[in-house]
Write a structure and sequence with these properties.
By secondary structure, this protein is of the alpha/beta class. It contains 9 helices and 15 strands.
Amino acid sequence: MKLYPIETGNFKLDGGAMFGVVPKSVWQKTNPADSNNMIDLAMRCLLIEDGKRLILVDTGIGNKQSKKFFNYYHLWGDFSLEKSLSQYGFICDDITDVFFTHLHFDHCGGAIKWNKDRSEYKPTFRNAIYWSNRDHWDWAVHPNPREKASFLKENILPIQESGQLKFIDTPKDNFLKNSPLGFDIYFINGHTDKQMLPVITQEEKTIIYAADLLPTTGHIPLPYVTSYDTRPLLSIVEKEQILTLAEQQEYFFFFEHDACCELCTLQQTEKGIRLKETFSFIDIFGK
């Protein structure tokens, strides 16, 4: 098995929304804001090469939305999904599986694109199976008012219409060992219903794909929960459980949204679990 970080682009979100009840005077120490109170964020995905399978975890925001839509999120930088795949010698047609942690637009938008004349949508990865779970899929296609702006029908419905969609079974205890993709999965419900976090072991090192449980290293303290979470108190419970496990087992967290840090470890302190060390992917897994 080989693992590759896939940088699909960068964007900005309001720092206050990203840190909920935490005051700006506190969160700006780790996530400095610009003059409009926006903080820099990544859309970093993970590519897993495992035998004949090439599995992409999340797909970034894509490029099919309107200029007005993208202006809301202040896209910046030169990264793209296609460029990052090509860096490792791959193209979109090589992808065999696309795994969605959840279906918010910044996690799944790149899975669907326009056709050449922009008359209809089609899968970006024409040879891939697209994986979600039925509970989250139903949650996304019948969105609540709080998340409606994040679940865009043009990102979601064409996946089902393509015939490439499959569902992963949801376990009763919210932990699935040895999923159809070959890795374990935590199912968590604080941010959105049945978000899935891959747990991947490579070379005796285990990483947890943090997705929106832990957007950045600045979100490690338990109360630092985003205003986008639908059940913030549950998010705190889930964070405590998973961070405690990761600290005790010396797991790495892989960050989807931290613009500066790809991986980190944790340590127990007088104030609770905190950041221990940060790493680049090359530091831990080599080229």
